[in-house]
TrEMBL record:
<keyword id="KW-0472">Membrane</keyword>
<feature type="repeat" description="TPR">
    <location>
        <begin position="206"/>
        <end position="239"/>
    </location>
</feature>
<keyword id="KW-1133">Transmembrane helix</keyword>
<dbReference type="Pfam" id="PF06580">
    <property type="entry name" value="His_kinase"/>
</dbReference>
<feature type="transmembrane region" description="Helical">
    <location>
        <begin position="402"/>
        <end position="423"/>
    </location>
</feature>
<keyword id="KW-0812">Transmembrane</keyword>
<feature type="signal peptide">
    <location>
        <begin position="1"/>
        <end position="19"/>
    </location>
</feature>
<dbReference type="InterPro" id="IPR010559">
    <property type="entry name" value="Sig_transdc_His_kin_internal"/>
</dbReference>
<feature type="repeat" description="TPR">
    <location>
        <begin position="246"/>
        <end position="279"/>
    </location>
</feature>
<dbReference type="Pfam" id="PF17874">
    <property type="entry name" value="TPR_MalT"/>
</dbReference>
<dbReference type="InterPro" id="IPR036890">
    <property type="entry name" value="HATPase_C_sf"/>
</dbReference>
<feature type="repeat" description="TPR">
    <location>
        <begin position="166"/>
        <end position="199"/>
    </location>
</feature>
<keyword id="KW-0732">Signal</keyword>
<dbReference type="InterPro" id="IPR011990">
    <property type="entry name" value="TPR-like_helical_dom_sf"/>
</dbReference>
<feature type="domain" description="MalT-like TPR region">
    <location>
        <begin position="143"/>
        <end position="352"/>
    </location>
</feature>
<dbReference type="GO" id="GO:0016020">
    <property type="term" value="C:membrane"/>
</dbReference>
<keyword id="KW-0802">TPR repeat</keyword>
Length: 649
């Protein structure tokens, strides 16, 4: 009767599972059908990726490819969405890693790195580098794993992404632990522990506490290692993590065994055996049996030790835990050898080697299969790209005829419009050339005007001074003439050349006027006088006017002339300030002396500035401001010249 009941319950369970599976299949079909109706854009790709994650376990249980991700892949390629492809290849790679297909996982994650870099998505790059590092670590490619995690860590620190910093730091610590660089491992686990604690991630805290225990045990600091195992155990108990508790109990058992405290070691290993009943992965149970067997063997309790080792072997054979069988038979061989039974020891060692060879063969076969999978994936990607290219070419050919008709009509229209603008442009160029010729004519007038005034000054200076001073004056004058002749050949000269000629002119006028004034030229700190351009001889007439109409008539104190040049809103602002008698008194003095000649230099310069404004269609003007002291009396004149800022580069 009981057998019938069990059979009935078994059939009922199968029926329930089948019904649940059928319901999941129907749900997946409806979800996929609804997503297929969405427009072909990145939002559709995102929906397929999310649905693939949601139903990932269903496809894993059926050992089939994730249909959502398989549909998302060609669409993402078609849209050339680098970020979607990076996200998708990360998911595909992680799914393959969970099935121990590390080569395929690494290939997918390397593709994710490429597309994340194409998208310039730093967070996605961090995730992809960390994933590829884990793949390499699972294949014992420690140097490559270290390089990937280090790159992830550097990028994560740049954007302050705590999650990826924790993953990279913990992984680097595990690599150092495997390489037996225990001090470096401790340093990285300590940092990861602090970050996980700050993030309130109890599982991460438990893992890093356990890792620190392994690192200290590697340094033979057993008491410190035991302390960290206990701390990890407390956190695992807090979050009710049976797997973590089992790992901690096994670690404590191994540590106490190393201390030869066999009673305490047995206590923790028995606890591991109890808590393993709550763990789905039975490899932990097999490991606990094996650890107890090793502990009993160390105490020369060989018969009892072999019972536990055999239990580990039986469980491992049932679940096909080949790596555990290698360790179990190796431990059994050592136990037989310790008891003097060399024949059985040799048999057990042979079985250990047999399973080791079997694993190597499986790894080779799996590697070959994974390489074939990678080839198929790459071939499929290339086919997708080829189909997309052919489709694009077809669409372009279809559009070409339509474009040709519109292009012909557009060409005729553009020919008419172009003809109109060509005639207009030709007229504008003619006007511009006329203005440039006029500007050149005005500029050329500056040479004879200035030379005439300077020769008059030399003439008066020679009559009023000795020959040696006249010779010095004439030498400076010749240098000034050379600069003026060179500068006025060009529409623009560099600011440093213009200021050099202006300083020479001011030195000559200061000598000529027996030092009745002093001057100062200042340029803004943001101005490179070798790159800024200015029309030649544009400031000299205003400086001359300030000296001869404002400063020479000042008798109460020494005259001062300031020239300030600054850049402001793409304009070059030149300010000439004097503390002379002011324009009103200067006009009165001029009227008393009778009608003199008109200032040719001022008129020519005003004409030049007006033409600069017309040619460049930018602000160019002169403003004159009368200065007054606190009593309201004239205190000089300020001339502000605004010119378009021009540069060599």
């Amino acid at each position: 009767m009981s057998i019938k009941i069990l059979c009935f319950l078994g059939l009922l369970l199968v029926g329930v599972c089948w019904a649940a599976d059928a319901q999941d299949s129907l749900r997946i079909y409806h979800t996929l059908d609804s997503i297929r109706k969405l427009p072909n854009d990145t939002a559709k790709v995102s929906s397929l990726i999310r649905a693939g994650k949601q139903y990932g376990r269903y496809f894993d249980n059926h050992k089939s490819e994730n249909q959502f991700w398989q549909e998302a892949l060609p669409l993402a390629h078609k849209l050339h969405s680098a970020r979607s492809l990076a996200l998708l290849y990360n998911e595909l790679g992680t799914a393959k890693r969970n099935k121990s297909q590390y080569l395929v996982a690494e290939d997918y994650h390397e593709k994710a790195i490429k597309y994340a870099e194409d998208a310039n998505d730093t967070l996605m790059m961090c995730l992809s580098f960390n994933n590829t590092g884990v793949d390499c670590r699972r294949q014992d490619k420690l140097q490559q794993a270290f390089d990937y995690h280090l790159r992830a860590l550097q990028l994560a620190e740049k954007i302050n992404d705590t999650r990826n910093i924790c993953v990279a730091t913990n992984s680097i610590g595990n690599i150092q632990l495997t390489a037996e660089n225990f001090e470096d491992a401790v340093r990285h686990f300590d940092r990861a522990l602090k970050l996980e604690g700050d993030s309130h991630n109890d599982l991460g805290v438990a893992i890093n506490l356990g890792n620190l225990g392994y690192a200290y045990q590697g340094q033979n600091k057993l008491d410190l290692a035991i302390q960290y195992y206990h701390r990890s155990l407390v956190v695992n108990q807090k979050i009710d993590n049976p797997t973590g508790m089992a790992i901690c109990y096994n670690a404590l058992g191994a540590a106490y065994k190393e201390k030869k405290d066999y009673a305490t070691a047995m206590e923790f290993l028995q606890k591991a055996l109890v808590v393993n009943g709550k763990v789905d992965d039975k490899i932990h149970v097999a490991e606990s049996y094996l650890n107890i067997g090793k502990l009993l063997s160390a105490q020369n309790k060989h018969d009892e030790a072999r019972k536990y080792m055999q239990q580990s072997i039986d469980l491992s054979i049932f679940w096909n835990f080949k790596s555990m069988l290698i360790e179990a038979y190796k431990a059994l061989a050592a136990d037989y050898k310790a008891s003097g039974d060399f024949r059985r020891s040799l048999d057990a060692a042979d079985k250990s080697l047999l399973y080791k060879d079997s694993i190597l063969n499986e790894k080779s076969a799996m590697a070959l299969k994974q390489m074939q999978t990678i080839y198929e994936v790459d071939r499929k990607d290339n086919q997708i790209k080829t189909l997309e290219h052919d489709k694009t070419v077809g669409e372009l050919k279809t559009k070409r005829n339509v474009v040709f008709i519109f292009a012909l009509a557009g060409f005729l229209l553009m020919a008419i419009i172009g003809g109109f603008f060509y005639i207009r442009h030709r007229n504008l160029e003619a006007n511009k050339q006329t203005l440039l010729l006029e500007l050149k004519s005005l500029r050329s007038q500056m040479n004879p005007h200035f030379i005439f005034n300077s020769l008059s000054s030399i003439h008066r200076y020679i009559w009023s001074n000795n020959q040696e001073e006249a010779s010095d004056y004439l030498t400076k004058f010749s240098r000034l003439m050379r600069l003026i002749l060179d500068n006025t050949q060009h529409t623009f000269v560099t600011l440093n050349k213009e200021l050099e000629s202006l300083r020479l002119y001011l030195d000559l006028e200061s000598l000529r006027c027996n030092g009745i004034f002093e001057y100062n030229i200042r340029i803004g700190t943001d101005i490179n006088d070798e790159e800024v351009l200015i029309p030649p001889m544009i400031l000299q007439p205003y400086v001359e006017n300030a000296i001869w109409h404002g400063l020479v008539h000042k008798h109460d104190d020494k005259g001062r002339l300031d020239v300030d040049i600054v850049l402001k809103d793409r304009s070059l602002v030149c300010t000439i300030t004097d503390n002379g008698i002011g324009r009103q008194k200067a006009m009165e003095i001029k009227e008393k002396k009778g009608k003199g000649h008109n200032s040719v230099g001022m008129k020519v310069t005003e004409g030049r500035i007006d033409l600069i404004r017309k040619i460049n269609n930018k602000e160019a003007r002169v403003m004159v401001t009368d200065l007054e002291n606190t009593a309201g009396q004239p205190a000089g004149t300020m001339v502000t010249i605004i010119l378009p800022a021009e540069f060599i580069f």
